[in-house]
Structures
1.
Amino acid sequence: MPQHVSAGHDTDVAVIGYGPTGLTAALTLAGKGADVVAFERDQDIYARARAVTVNDWTMRIFQELGVDDRIERVIEPQRALRWVTYDGREVMRVEHPPSTLGTRNTRPRFYNIYQPAMEAELRRCGEELGNLEVRYGAEVVAVEQDADGVTITSRDRATGAETTTRARYAIAADGGSSPTRKHLGVEMLGDTVDTLWVVIDCKVKRWWPDRDFLTFWTDAERPVVDIALSAGNHRWEIPLKPGETEADFPTGAEVWPLLEALGVTHDDVEIHQHAFYRHHVRAAETWRRGRVFLAGDACHLMPPWAGAGMQSGMRDAHNLGWKLARVLRGELGEEWLDTYEAERRPNADFYTGLAVGLGRVIKQEATPEEVAAMNTVPENTVTPWEPPLTAPPVLSAGWLRGETGDASVIGRMVPQPVCGDTVGTMDRLDGLLPDGFVLLGADTDPAALLTPEQKAGWDALGARYVAVRPRTAYTRGSGELVDLEDVLLPWLARYGVRAVAVRPDKFVAAADTSGLDVPAL
């Protein structure tokens, strides 16, 4: 037992499932000093590429974990999205602006991925952490808990031997069928769509025009998803017609006519594999039972049209992970864990609704008014408007003080330009900010704007106070930053604020305009 794990426990946190969600949870927790044991029933990475994209929010999480440069080597920038009819009429297009969360004008907003390759790189990152143990081939068969911890019973799938592991907390990231959710007696509410889809993954043999668009071929009978994956892979997702079943497509030979009907030839691709699935719109009635938390597909399932299913799970894991790590260290009270579902459920619901709406477009069920509404710029916006699919991240509920909305900075993720520090070091903002809670002041010391009571509250959270100076001015003290790209100060001015309180996940929790008191739990 590691020295700092409390008596009676084998580890701090048990992570059940080691796919993208479980990986993110384990890397977040272990990276912040927690001891983690992960259980994965399979020996190898699931070979089928399920998710197809990540965006800059997910990449910022990877940046915090220190793995973004490595992940960028196995993913590729995405060009744009388009919805097109078979006769060539473009119904809708979403262009990808540069990221606001990385170096300005040099980092993409969206990336194509090949999920097995991305997972493999994340697993290699985990192997470098001495406080993360992964037990492959270990199927969790029982989860029991009491006031002091969680007892995990796992069975070695090769030998049948059973082992019990005692953890202070557990995170279930074991997929949509989640045995852990069933152990906890948590119901999954919602619907499953009857239509069966075939997913066809191919290896590219030659380039074809506009291959780098993510294209949704809209059709009432046979809508198709046509998307470039990274590392020379390409995917089509095609619904089966009434009367067609999996049995009609036992091998690639039977699948080929579906591709040929789209104009795809043997000169273009080689079929790598194909699989079948149905779309779900489902969510767990609760994401927590005592010391056990659900994350990812274990607590929400959405159609694929917004490219947010896997990413929502990874964001669940990061949100829970940074809080739980600090609770384990005694820096935050256990009541902080109640903010996990309060913050993540609305965001998962948003992307689920967005995916359903985009699905109506691709299946030609949306009215022209609905399509137009998705691209209509609201009146009197303060923030430069972007379609919901590409808009920068926001929190709509949780540990925040003040109202959210277009005119408010509350709940927004602070942009991340290249900044400089007082001794001339230049880096992206997150690389220069201290880990934890930070108050940023617009050309002012934010501590000077606080009452003694407010400062005592932030000091209790270990907050740091950072003045952001314009690049045309001198710094005036240690710990200050310079806005080298003229991004941060104009961003704060847009919302009329002089100081903001930034959480460890880089969302704004409070501002001087609505009060810089520590938000209530």
Note: The mean pLDDT is 93.
2.
Amino acid sequence: MTPSPIGAPIRPSPIRKVLVLGGGTAGWMTAAALSKVLGGQVEVVLIESEQIGTIGVGEATIPPILTFNAMLGIDEREFMRATRATFKLGIEFRDWTRIGDRYIHPFGSFGLDIEALKFHQVWRKVRDQVGPIEDFNLAAVAARQNRFAMPDPDPAKVLSSLKYAFHFDAGLYARFLRGFAEARGATRVEGKVRDVALRGEDGFIQSVTLEDGRVFEADLFIDCTGFRALLIGQTLGGTYVDWSHWLPNDRAVALPCDTGGDGLTPYTRATADKAGWRWRIPLQHRTGNGYVYSSAHIGDDQALDSLLAGLDGPAQADPNFLRFQPGRRDRAWIKNCVAIGLSSGFLEPLESTSIHLIQAAITKLLALFPDTSFDPLEIDEYNRLTAQQVELVRDFIILHFKATERSDTPYWDYLRTMEIPESLARKIDLFAGRGRLFQSDYDLFAEPSWIAVLMGQGIVPRQYDALVDSLPQAALVQRLQRMSALIGQTAQAMPSHQVFIARYCAAEAAANTPVSRPA
């Protein structure tokens, strides 16, 4: 801190050095953003060890990642080639309400509001005459046909309503961002931490010491050490809020395989199983698979057998088993340490929120970037906003498990009958009555997402907004029929997802990778 003249207030110093502990997706997203936005003003150092494996969290994303890429100035084609990426228009859910059911949670909106009346209210009145609500979402219709095209910038065109995200190789993504960050001044240090030193006067982190004796000091420390939470948990004693009574899945097994089956689908698939659910994520060079499950309801060997039985093609690696506890840190920012990624908490990857929550943490950190005074009010605000956002996401994920008719296993019996947070119960009841939805500013999932999952899992409003009766029914039916026909025609005119990938962003290595087809 710079000395001040006698009688003058002491001004806090700006942050000069940030130390990011841990690499992987969280570490390198953080380093990339800080080096881009604060480059030249703040020294960014990232310490990681090749001896410590990363979880590789998140191979599927949601549309806000386009905002993150735009902030960094990343070229989309270059990024997609480097990470063997494909496009994502939503998530297909199979067997969630009952075995044999399927629906898509697509990106983008359903239809168009009519005279200030919500589209889903209008659709509810005439649904028997116009078809399922998915027919009014371009991403859902295109996903069902395995088609993709870029959104049209003209808001008058149906194609302007399309929203998308990506599937990519998380390891390659971290490598790509490492190159980006290092090109902008970030420094990578190889090593494992032996000790963390605290300042005596206030308990702030002063330095970390590596096993080889090197000592690294910083003003601000970012904990990206995953489930270990070396700084925020082990050192600063941040407690953990356990949500396993609502989200009992505490294990996962992941396994990549050759591409086969439905090929390069422009959507993630989540298939409900006896004691959890299985994911399928198609990349250019392989398909990512996993089974997220409850160890109280199924053993590891049984879970692996179930996963292997559903693979599209031959496995490309040994299975990777993970253990986790759903929940969050009571505070993601303590003193001069911010936890980002798995060190701040974990919500199972059902709605591809892992990478977005990293992105959201980085965005809030930049908006509340401190000086060396570390204003407690700003730290409290960061923690308040973080808790609010994560709890809203938690409720959305719980909805998928609660809104089910399945009773075929003890696992689904428990989920169907469990008590849920009052905030979610109220939202379900409001929608089930008359289709009412009210959003928080910090709700990651907007109204169309709630509509997709609520209705997809059998919660259709018993009534509709009475104001809809002011509109002539015959005219409404004709209008909606024209709308769905136009959406269908727009989707039909798109190229296949595989053809679009080949033209737009085919990775050279992936282009030469043989594709396994089922017999």
Note: Confidence is low (pLDDT under 50) at residues 511-519.
3.
Amino acid sequence: MSPRRSLPPAGPLRELAVVEIVGEGDVVVLRQVGREAGELLGLDRQDQVRLATALSEVGREVVAAGRGRAVLHVTAPPHVGLVVHVHGALRPGAAHGALTGVAAAERLLDGVEVADGPDGRVVVLHKALPGEALLGGRFDRVHEALARPRSADALGELRVQNAELVRALDALAAREAELVRANEELEETSRGVLAMYTQLSDELEETNSGVVALYAELDERGRQLAAANDAKTRFLRSVSHELRAPVNSILGLASLLADGDLDADQRVQVGYLDASARALLGMVNELLDLARAESGRQHVRRVRVDLPAMLAELAGTVRPLLRPEVELRVEVTADLVLHTDPELLERVLRNLLTNAVKFTESGAVTLRAGRAADGRTVVIAVEDTGLGIAREHLDEVFEEFFQVPNRLQPSVKGTGLGLPYARRVAEALGGSLEVASEVGEGSTFTLTLERTDVPTLGRVLVVDDEEPSRVVLRGLLADAAAEVLEARDGAEALAALAPPAALPDVVLLDVRMPGTDGPATLAALRSDPRTAGLPVVLMSSAEPPDADAPFLDKAQLDAAGLARALRAAGAPVAADGAATGEQGP
């Protein structure tokens, strides 16, 4: 069955016409009435034919079973429709699906129902009408037109049906021709799409080949650049080492000459010689430092650094270099502590301060240091009111041998290596170095470092059978622990923790030890109510064991790794939040 739209609720019924169905001639009359009713009520020609055909098919079912009648009604707005009740002696007991006329009507109209009435079975046919079907007194005109007598002219009805069939065939032929044209257009379009797809596929394949070749070329260029960079680094390192020896010899000879019997002019000349040799040695050292930083072999030795003290000392050494119209300001958060390499940090900051002093003729050079908002980061900034750097040169200042063009450049000495070295050292320290500048307004270089503080502890027990490991841990804990105790294996550690000995605040426990190893020692500590809650950190250069304790990889044994492990173990920290990175004063 074809799907039918849902029927609107039926309103009050108004009777249009009644057709008695006794013989085949009455079926012809019913068909005529249905067609004319559809035309008068505003249905299009196709719907008129559908309605007339449905009525004639149901009428034949009635005639085949006996006799009956058809009553045409219309429903009032808002749901205007035609409702036809066909009463008759339909075949008794016939199933709904066995009534072929009813089945045909279901395919032609909006709805068909079969029900039992007081005088037999009733077929109810529904057909929706246009909203204006009953406007302007049309009901009365339709009722009057359908009430006129009709003759059962079978031949005339046959002619009408033939004409309808011809029209339907013409419509089908036109539709078929339209479909043929659409199919031809579709085939033409498909051929065009296929040709375009083939062309695009060829172009895409060619492009992919080009991309693959480009990637291969880029990889090769990358390898060449890496090789060239390695060669440059080796060259710088080799040349720097080779140059230092003769320069040191020149300095030594100049010192000997200065100690000899010289007249005033000779002494001045020897002084120039010594100054020039020292300047050359400084440039050689810069080259060597840069080569070491580029090679990734920059050794970082992290210790506890009192930042306010370091910056105060650094400011004292830079102050004599200031022009008379320039002020040096130091603004540092009190009690700011870092675990970093003080020598490398001082080199970076001295480089930044020296640059700021060189290119600032008036105003101020300001050195600021404090904790970032997250409390885990320290920000050190060097700000000046100097010449500034043009926007197009901001990235170039970190390239080797580049010097920003400005009016002071001829009178300012430099190699263009300081800032590239400073950035690489900042990265080696686990931080970053950035610049912001405006021409005529000044520049700000910002160094950002993560706070890798070791928690300030009371007593720490280090359990490790390797002396070098204990030495490293003693160094890392030197400024953080009030007392560092040591044991060479698990048995010695358990003995040191036995009553009446006071318990430490945390235990650093090696995993692989002769005798009682780390996991066995940990199990013994957890089984004793007295030591069950003692914070323990397991350490090893091998894979971590399956144990419920924080693990520290000895290959990453530094202040940052130790701090993370101690925090994970729940070790006690200082009141100022050094371990947790809380915002300080």
Note: The first helix runs from residue 24 to 40.
4.
Amino acid sequence: MAEPMSAPATTTTRSIAVPKGRDPGSVAVLGGGVAGLTAAHELAERGYRVTVYERNDALGGKARSMGVPGTGTGTGTGTGTGGRLPLPGEHGFRFFPGFYRNLPDTLRRIPYPNKSGSVHGNLVNAPECLVARFGGRPNLRFPVRTLLSLPVPASLLPGTLVESLMGLLDTSLNLPPTEVAHFLGRLLVHLTSCELRRIEQWERVPWWTFINADAMSREYQQLLGVGITRDLVAVRAEVASTRTVARLIQAFIYNLLGRGNDGEIDRVLNAPTSEAWITPWEVHLRSLGVEFEFGTAVEELVYAGGRITGVRVRSTSTAAGRTVAAGHYISAMPVQDARAGWGADLRAADPQLERCDRLRTAWMVGVQFYLRTRTPLVHGHVIHVDSPWALTSVSQAQFWKGRDFRSTYGDGEVADCLSVDISAWDRPGILYGRPGIKCTPDEVRREVWAQLKAGLNGAGRQVLADADLHSWFMDPAVSGLGGPAPSHREQLLIHPVGTWYDRPSSRTAVPNLFLAGDYVATDIDLATMEGANESARRAVNALLDTAGSTAPRCRVRRLHRPPELAFLHKLDEIRYRSGLPNLFDRG
């Protein structure tokens, strides 16, 4: 279990005064993703000497963007005078819900030359969502705004309003009102459940079972069972933890109501992630004294005498090995990499490390399609709810204001990037009848393109055209597709029932070892950038506590807890401890 969660706080920007006169010591941060960079940021602001060891040749982990090799026309800045930049690729698109509160605080503390003076100012609202349907059914388009933001997006005014109404009518005809009422009733049960019931009861119940999907229509199953879990949590509804899924829906509901949030419900960056966020972050961390060692893979944490005495690392380019040492160590690697470096003696020292072997990961990675024509499908994200591979997508050029795509990237022919996340690699597709993990790279590309067209084209719509497709790209972390042993180096933690019990806290039983990453127990309880950031703050606080530091602790913000429901939560705790169901639970 995680250490106690701190009280909610505002998101006011602040900097930590670097202590003077005493060197608090050195810290080795293992991993340069969001968790590792957050830990380095917080520690450097408190005067620690920090070195980040990163396996790749760039920072950001799964959040980074990258240039597509061989697609640029020079080494210039993309201004038209010195050549174009490579086409922007990425592991998968990023989005920043308004209920994120820890990560936005960090973004506000990264300087950037814009009106806000920080990277946080690079966030732009994505005020719409499109649910794409197969079989020529009308797509469902709706605004994604807090209730305090009443103006309707221009794209929902006459012209697309008819499409929106048709999609709403189609959904209403296929989704019985009684089933909608039942689903809302199940949400009410979770909203009014105490935390003890959520952890001890709903964590053990699959989402599919909790919402009684077996007894409902196919539309109910597809939209509210399969769609929510595969597209947002990347795990099958039949096994997904109710606590995790409902917690995410609950956060979106409070965000919609404008309660305890940092901003609008859906936000994206105004440029490729590394341009708008990761590179400025690296520059700022270097200014704070943080050092980086790239191409350095962690092999083993050396444990002796009850402490970590060093870390064996090797160069990814030369295979040369060595041991690095520091006063404290924060393991900020993905769980599949972190646990590989824990030897038997270290595991014996802290049983929660052994339990991490039960945590499960799955493939979730994106494909970018580069189009010759600007193709803003919707001013936000598209959920391809009927796609067997659980696709979600976003047209990116519309959000990158102030830059002309053709003159900035590639060979001058590309006008847009349609970035697509694939959440279900284990399901047969519509083109080849095989799961993605059994396809060649080109078959994956063709299959994803076919599923996109199946949802966006049809019924007189011609949104995507084959002739418009210029090229495509997939993160090189995926390799061996089409062969006997396909692999994915940067998988995502998934949340089947019982996952919470195996997630470790940031504090370990080893006094100079701390854990950060999206697999560590956090309040958000979801493998996200927010979870990675929160876990790093907890790791730094645990380090400061262990070291007896007088430096201010990192502020850890929780998801919103509405005080209006406090009485019902207390009542439910009494009922749960008495063996009674939730007051609103009618099964």
Note: The chain has three domains: 26-57+294-358+497-547, 62-126+265-272+364-488, 162-260+560-587.
